[in-house]
Design a protein that fits this description.
Layout: H1 2-76, H2 92-145, H3 151-174, H4 187-192, H5 196-218, H6 222-225, H7 230-246, H8 265-268, E1 281-284, H9 297-311, H10 320-342, H11 348-357, E2 359-362, E3 365-368, H12 369-377, H13 389-402, H14 433-448, E4 450-451, E5 458-461, H15 462-466, H16 475-485, H17 488-500, E6 510-513, E7 520-523
Parallel strand pairs: 5-6
Antiparallel strand pairs: 1-7, 2-3, 4-5
Helix pairs in contact: 7-9, 7-10, 10-12, 12-13, 16-17
């Protein structure tokens, strides 16, 4: 019995020990779990704090970068001539670079101003040369028309006149009946002595016939005129103004298509085919009638109607080709309308002055021809310093609103300011403007570029010298470019002339024809 009791006690003690150990183990596990949780909480808090500190640092860095960006933007976009206001927190290397940029910008401004002044000087020099040539030619013509007379011949003519007068008096006294004297018929004096009333009636009949034809031609197409399409409006304005200017001619100066040479390239050089320019109509100061009563009324009404359409036109959403064709037509219309409003200029200087007066209302904006050319069609550096500060800012605003996305160098061959050396006027359409500009370039160069037979030099219009950088990087490259644009035979001959003269300086390979500012328009039939 005692042994069993002892055995039970020992078993109970061992069970108690095991329970105690289990309890201790569970307590230790709980303690370890609590310690792990505490440690994990502490580590997550530390991580959160570290991340928050990193975020704060990045925000601070971002604010600093934004401040630097704003400072650099202000420094770069500052008005020319104003010193940049640079904050002290910019890096020293950045401050040095900005200072160098400011110095270089001022130097570029100074050089561009010198270039523009030189260009203006050349412009005025070309005007003076053109006017002096006209004066010399006029004096030569006047001397040819009024030669020095021989006094002996004058005396004999006067004596003969007296004898004829006495004979006529005696005949008038002796004869009581009038006699019919037959004389040889001469056509030219009869034309000069036409009855003015008959001439006026004939002119009136001719104008009425043209007006009737125009009315029949316009009425069916009135729907197209009522269209608000900007390109269609600009095309119709050019057509209408061209028709008016063609009808301003006193008489039909329809030159022989085989002989007409608008730039006198064949008369000065060897004769050759000048291309499509030989078929153009020429309207100059000597062949124009400034009497507005002679204009067909229907053309004037149509022009006013189109200008009202132009004043309310919407130019939003136009493509590059549509803008290009539209503004070329508007520039040429602006200059032609200026001649109708202010009259035909009497001298070359007035042609240049009229460019400042030529204005049109386009979509509610009053634009000059110079603004259209230099701030919309060309890059603005061509005329950066030719205007006052207000006009310059206005031009920049116009360019930002209406300007082309890309500059088009070929507009040089499409813009006509109404001078003798200007290219021909034609209508440009949005769908074919690139092809039409290419044709305008080819036609102009074929008619205005030649080869001197005596010196074998390339003869080039001054217009290409003014806008050289639009087509080539230097004068030698310009000569190569011109040769590639000419027709096959003329281009090969020009290339051979250049190849023979490679040993000579580049300036000796070609000569420029001075720009003539006298009034003239070349119009397509």
């Amino acid at each position: 019995m005692n042994i069993r009791v002892k055995t039970r006690e020992q078993c109970m003690k061992s069970h108690m020990k095991l329970d105690t150990k289990k309890v201790e183990m569970q307590g230790r596990r709980k303690t370890c779990a609590q310690k792990a949780n505490t440690t994990q909480r502490r580590s997550s808090g530390d991580r959160k704090l570290a991340l928050q500190q990193d975020v704060d640092k990045l925000k601070k860095k971002l604010r600093h970068e934004e401040n630097v960006h704003r400072a650099l933007e202000r420094a770069i976009n500052r008005p020319l001539g104003a010193l940049p206001r640079l904050p002290p927190y910019l890096p020293p290397s950045t401050l040095e670079l900005l200072a160098e940029v400011a110095v270089l910008e001022e130097e570029v401004v100074r050089l561009e101003e010198q270039v523009v002044q030189c260009r203006q000087g050349l412009y005025q020099e070309a005007v003076s040369i053109s006017s002096s040539k006209k004066e010399i030619q006029h004096s030569t013509n006047s001397m040819a028309e009024h030669p020095v007379r021989n006094p002996m011949k004058d005396n004999s003519k006067s004596s003969e006149g007296k004898e004829n007068k006495s004979c006529a008096n005696s005949t008038r006294i002796n004869d009581k009946k009038p006699q019919i004297v037959s004389s040889p018929v001469k056509k030219s004096p009869v034309k000069k002595r036409l009855d003015p009333l008959k001439t006026q009636v004939d002119c009136r009949v001719k104008i009425d016939q043209e007006t009737a034809e125009l009315r029949n031609r316009v009425d069916p197409n009135q729907k197209t005129l009522e269209c608000d399409n900007p390109n269609r409006i600009s095309e119709n304005i050019v057509k209408c103004l061209s028709s008016i200017i063609l009808r301003m001619r006193i008489h039909d100066r329809c030159e022989e298509s085989e002989n007409y040479d608008p730039y006198t390239i064949c008369s000065r050089l060897e004769k050759r085919d000048i291309g499509p320019y030989k078929h153009l109509f020429s309207v100059d100061a000597s062949s124009i009638n400034t009497n507005h009563k002679a204009f067909p009324p229907i053309l004037l009404h149509r022009l006013k109607f189109l200008f009202r359409k132009l004043a309310s036109v919407d130019l939003q959403g136009l493509t590059h080709q549509e803008k290009l064709a539209f503004w070329i037509n508007i520039y040429n219309s602006c200059m032609m309308n200026a001649f109708l409003e202010h009259g035909v200029p009497e001298g070359p200087e007035m042609v240049v002055a009229l460019m400042q007066k030529a204005i049109l209302n386009v979509g509610g904006h009053i634009l000059t021809a110079i603004t259209i050319e230099h701030f919309i069609l060309r890059l603005p550096y061509h005329s950066k310093y030719t205007f006052s500060g207000g006009a310059k800012c206005e031009g920049v605003t116009v360019r930002s609103k209406f300007g082309l996305e890309l500059s088009e160098p070929l507009v040089t061959f499409a813009l006509s300011c109404g001078s003798w050396s200007s290219p021909a006027v034609r209508v440009y359409t949005a769908t074919q403007v690139e092809t039409e500009l290419e044709a305008a370039k080819k036609d102009y160069l074929q008619a205005a570029v030649g080869i001197a037979s005596s010196t074998r030099k390339l003869v080039i219009p001054k217009l290409l010298d003014w806008y050289l950088l639009d087509f080539a990087k230097d004068f030698e490259s310009l000569l190569d470019w011109i040769c590639l644009q000419l027709p096959d035979e003329l281009g090969k001959e020009a290339m051979s002339c250049l190849e023979r003269g490679r040993s000579e300086p580049v300036s000796q390979l070609a000569q420029f024809v001075p720009y003539d500012f006298s009034f003239r328009y070349l119009l397509h039939r």
